[in-house]
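Justification of resources, computational component.

The compute hours requested in this renewal are based largely on the per-chain cost of generating structure records like the one below. Each record pairs the submitted sequence with a full structure-token output. That output is archived, and it is also reused by downstream analysis tasks.
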Amino acid sequence: MIIPNDLFKKGLFILLFLFSCSTDRVDDPIPFQPFPDINITLTNHPALASDGGFLLINDGGVRGIILYRKNSTTYLAFERNCSFQPNDACATVDVHASTLFMQDACCGSSFNFEGKPTGGSAWRPLQQYETTLSGNTLTIRDTIVE
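The structure output for this chain reads:
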């Protein structure tokens, strides 16, 4: 059976259209970028003086990191690159003005301070990195916490 040229072109167009449609669940990987060690003495970083304090760090990570003090010995480091469509130019997570959660104003996603999505488009948690405290020096490693 021979398919007429116009019918073939229409069928090919429909197939290409269907395969080009994207879903909301984009799973683009966030590349690793190295981190500097951080001296967390209170004089250098007063925001980390109390539990629940945070610091936005521009060095390291793709778009920087959010360092969160859970308690005096536990610090959590989150990639500021949003987990939803991370290649979008505006996919940057900040701490909300209320300081109660983190958010990406671009896609409307919000995250708790464990990095888990609590609203908006994101369905994956923020990328979290391993932290080690030795004296006043906090080291952030490329090892991803799961």
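Residues 15-23 have pLDDT under 50 and may be disordered. Strands lie at 38-39, 54-57, 65-71, 74-79, 94-95, 102-104, 109-111, 117-119, 128-134, 137-144.
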